[in-house]
Amino acid sequence: AGSTPSGLREGGVPSYMVAQGLVFIKHAQDPTSQKIVRAKRSVGFMVYCTGRSWTGPLGATWAEVDDTRSPGECSWVLVQGPGFGVVGPLLVDPLSEEHASQRIAVRWCRDPPIFECVMPKTATIGDVVNVFCARTGLNKKETILTKSLPKKAPNGSGILLPMDYTSAKDVLFNEMTIRDAQITDTLNLVYVGHFEEDYHPTI
């Protein structure tokens, strides 16, 4: 038997929810393995774990997958950490009351949404924008999120008024927490830059 790697902890989270639509996996019993696979998983997908976690030398946290509930997944999965080109956690604890999470979707002009994630309600709208822009290539300074679209033009054409007619109460500010924003539906992107030029999704 090999020596136990330092950084291992017991009694951790029994299940996680995929927060950003992708995961990083080590298909090995040894969490120190350097062979890492990036894979797509839908936002909200559940990953069942043993409760063991390992923190690497650079601060990344990995959770051991429970292969009795996730067959064929004898592996470790990245919860969060630096060095993977991703902003924010990849997995969140859906049962945590302290860090209760919310699913967030963002549309550009029309459905379907161009972005989905799960974020803790204690996170700010600024945190959402950071994750959104890291995933889409859009510029943070030119990104505004709103809870509703403007009203339709009064001429009966059915065309929406320009975005600057959005109700002030529906514009989300970066300092707000997700909890305070009271998001109940898909958010709308107001982009003041050149969307077609800047939009380069990473997944």
What is the SS-derived class?
mainly beta
Strand tally: 13
How far apart lie the N and C ends?
Answer: 39 Å
Helix content: under 10%
Q: What is the typical, i.e. mean, pLDDT?
A: 89
Stretches with pLDDT under 50, minimum 5 residues? none
- Using the alpha-carbon principal axes, give the shape: elongated
Oligomer: single chain
Structural description of this entry:
The chain has about 200 residues and is mostly beta strands. It contains three helices and 13 strands. The protein has helices spanning about 125-135, 180, 195-200; strands spanning about 10, 15-20, 20-25, 35-40, 45-55, 60-65, 75-80, 90, 100-110, 110-120, 145, 170, 185-190. The strands form two sheets. Strands 1, 2, 3, 4, 5, 6, 7 and 8 form an eight-stranded antiparallel β-sheet that branches. The protein has a five-stranded mixed β-sheet with strand order 10-9-13-11-12, with helices on one face. The longest helix has 12 residues, at about 125-135. The radius of gyration is 20 Å and the shape is elongated.
Per-chain topology:
Blueprint: E1 8-9, E2 15-18, E3 22-26, E4 37-40, E5 46-55, E6 61-65, E7 76-80, E8 91-92, E9 101-108, E10 110-120, H1 125-136, E11 143-146, E12 171-172, H2 178-181, E13 187-191, H3 195-198
Parallel strand pairs: 9-13
Antiparallel strand pairs: 1-5, 2-5, 2-8, 3-4, 3-7, 5-6, 6-7, 9-10, 11-12, 11-13
